[in-house]
Amino acid sequence: MGQPLTISSLVEQMSALGIESGMTLVVHSSLSSLGYVVGGAPAVILALESVLGPEGTLAMPTHSGDLTDPAGWSNPPVPEAWHELIRVTMPAFHPDLTPTRGMGVIPECFRKQNGTRRSCHPFVSWAARGPHAAFIASDHALSMSQGERSPLARLYERDAYVLLLGVGYDCNTSFHLAEYRCQFAPLKRCTRGAPMPTADGGSRWTTYDDIFWYDADFGEIGRAFEDMGAVRVGNIGQATSRLFSQPALVDFAVRWMDENRRLPD
User: Fold this and answer.
1) How far, in Å, CA of 131 to CA of 136, rounded?
2) What distance in Å separates the CA atoms of residue 36 and residue 244, rounded to the nearest whole number?
3) At 119, which helix (H) or strand (E)?
4) Residue 180: its pLDDT value, please?
């Protein structure tokens, strides 16, 4: 069965994969994939921060799919007769209060850690901690929410690395930045909605411009990128994990989408 993972053994394995002090690191994770971790999610976060050191910056997506238009909900759906009531009464996003949805226990734990900054987008917020956290999390535009005024673009500017910790390329949010930069972006425009805070502490339903995201080919793009030898692959605990440059991946994905993507009707 082997030994349970500890902070020190996680640090050793993360370093062996190539995570270095001073990096800006994006982490997508599955705690259950690691095996038994003494201390659970906090231990994983502390191990990551130990490897990155005081000059490193850690970032994770902290998306909150609950704060979206109920007309698009499917897991679970709600009756159409409820939609307008939900829009009118849904509480606005609060970085310290609004939980993540579908992100896993590690990002949910990380967003609440003292010193973590969280961007203020109601749907696709990001959390970051370290010297570059304010740069990454500030000025997150409501419209075109994962494009040029998003934490994804700031991470690109910081030459960030991505760690897929026991998850696949389908969880790699950085592909969405490529979607805004590829030739198909103007063809994919849409309108989204979310509750936004008002001056009196309430909320107001607000619509904003964005693009449709299409993730069905993310696995294929990731495998093609990996075939170029651009990805370090190894085990952290029982989890197959991958480390790679975020800008290199985004640039590759833009070219791949321009050459290969055929959008569904």
Assistant:
1) 10
2) 26
3) none
4) 97
Cβ 60 vs Cβ 25: under 8 Å = no
pLDDT at position 5: 97
d(CA 165, CA 258): 28
pTM of the model: 0.95
Q: What is the pLDDT of residue 145?
A: 98
Tell the burial category of 46 from Cβ atoms under 10 Å away from its Cβ (0-12, 13-18, 19+).
Answer: middle
Other Cβ atoms closer than 10 A to 235: 14
Residue 234 in contact with residue 155, Cβ under 8 Å?
no
Q: What is the mean pLDDT of each run of 10 residues along the chain (265 residues)?
A: 90 98 98 97 98 98 95 91 95 95 96 97 98 97 97 98 98 97 91 94 94 94 96 97 98 97 70
Give, for 244, the enclosing helix (H) or strand (E): strand 239-245
pLDDT at 194: 96
Q: Determine the pLDDT at residue 262.
A: 80
Tokens in use for 106? Answer: 């590690």
The CA distances from residue 235 to 13, 15, 99, 184, 231, in Å, are 8, 11, 29, 36, 13
Please tell me the distance from the alpha carbon of residue 64 to that of residue 187, in angstroms, as a whole number. Answer: 26
Pairing between β-strand 57-61 and β-strand 24-29 as defined by DSSP bridges: parallel
The residues spanned by each domain of the chain are 7-260
Q: Write the DSSP string, 25-61.
A: EEEEE-GGGG--BTTHHHHHHHHHHHHH-TT-EEEEE
Structure confidence at residue 265 (pLDDT): 56
Surface-to-core class of residue 54, CB atoms within 10 Å of its CB (0-12 exposed, 13-18 middle, 19+ buried): exposed
